[in-house]
Amino acid sequence: MLASVALKQVGRPQVLAKVTTATQTRNIHDVTFTKKNGQPLIRQGLGGRSSTNGHIATVFGCTGFLGRYVVNKLAQQGTQVIVANRDPDESRHLKVCGDLGQVIPLEFNLKDRESLVECVRHSDVVYNLIGRDYETKNFTFDDVHADGARRLAEVCAESGVSKFIQVSALNASEDSPSKFLRSKALGEKYVREIIPGSTIVRPSIMWGHEDRFLNKIGENEGWQYYVNEGETKIRPVSAIDVAQALDIMLTAESTVGKTFELYGPKEYQVKQIFELAREIAMKPLPIYPIPNVGIKLIATLMDKLPYNQMVSPDLIERLKMDDKITPGALTFEDLYIKPTDLETVAIYFLRRFRSNAVFDLPYEKGEGQVQKGVYHLID
Question: Does residue 60 sit in helix, strand or coil?
């Protein structure tokens, strides 16, 4: 109608051509086709949260520690995200990560195949972040990490999902003394058998605002214990860095069928992490060295208690294992990401455990780098 009005007022046919050209905003080169099923990905907008990049991603395990960061990263670049959850109240906070209608909650049951099909039938990318640190009466490690991953992979293969990304764990091995790590390795095996092009991600222990690592050290004042005399070697990694890597895998075709091991830039002994926490929190944070035999016996007794989520014999086995890096494995460097050094930003996460009298005092080792903006809490 705008073109006809302009033509009537001016009386020249050239105006119609100009108006028609100005309203054209999409061309054939704006359409991308997925390699697996040939479906078009139509982009709208200039990029960012209020645009649409054409991708629809389903995130299983979205309500966990890592999941909320992954959903936020995906939604920020215009991905429509289906947040598969078991309780709508637990995923409610994720809806504000994206624009209106871009974050869609759907309920599922890992043992209900129909609910899994409903969660993935519109998606071209699926992330499996489901994991448990302890077993329950309803779900064992194998139920969640092995059989659950296999069931998800089968549903995705049948639904024509273009990309499947399985989050496992560093040190996952079928020969591991830990049942948790054996089940993780078995899940990797099942996924690769069903979807050979699936991407496997093995992060080390992750730290962040809602972690069970730094927060546990700061909160459990007077209740800490050493396993292996605190000499276990670990490479803690930022959850935001891992989420950034998973976000890149959404569109990076070079990651298809590959295995990535994501770990921090520096190796620590567990007792060094406690020393760092003492320096920043300015508290004694006493630790009780308990022999491995004694702590395993205590863990065995506590594991028989109902609703025990604190310690188990399998957890003790994991706490005794050093982080082992597979030679030649792909890492952050292959994704052009420089992982964050824990010492430079630890004050952001441990300052809240200080008393009011020393809350504002700087931390000498990391304060200078923190002030330079090395780490961005809001990306």
Answer: strand
Q: What is the pTM of this model?
A: 0.84
Cα 165 from Cα 128, distance rounded (Å) = 6
The dihedral formed by the CA atoms of 109, 77, 211 and 214, expressed in degrees to the nearest 10: 170
In the beta sheet, which residues pair with residue 44? 52
How do residues 122-174 score in pLDDT, each as one tens digit? 999 999 999 988 888 889 999 999 999 999 999 999 999 999 999 999 999 99
Q: How far is CA 46 from CA 11, 25, 74, 259, 279, in A?
A: 35, 11, 16, 32, 46
In the beta sheet, which residues pair with residue 127?
A: 59, 165
User: Are 66 and 239 within 8 A, CB to CB?
Assistant: yes
Q: How far apart are CA 71 and CA 90, in angstroms?
A: 14
Ordered structural domains, the chain, with CATH:
31-208+236-265+322-340 (3.40.50.720)
Q: How many other CB atoms are found less than 10 A from the CB of residue 264?
A: 23
| Separation CA 348–CA 371 (nearest Å) | 11
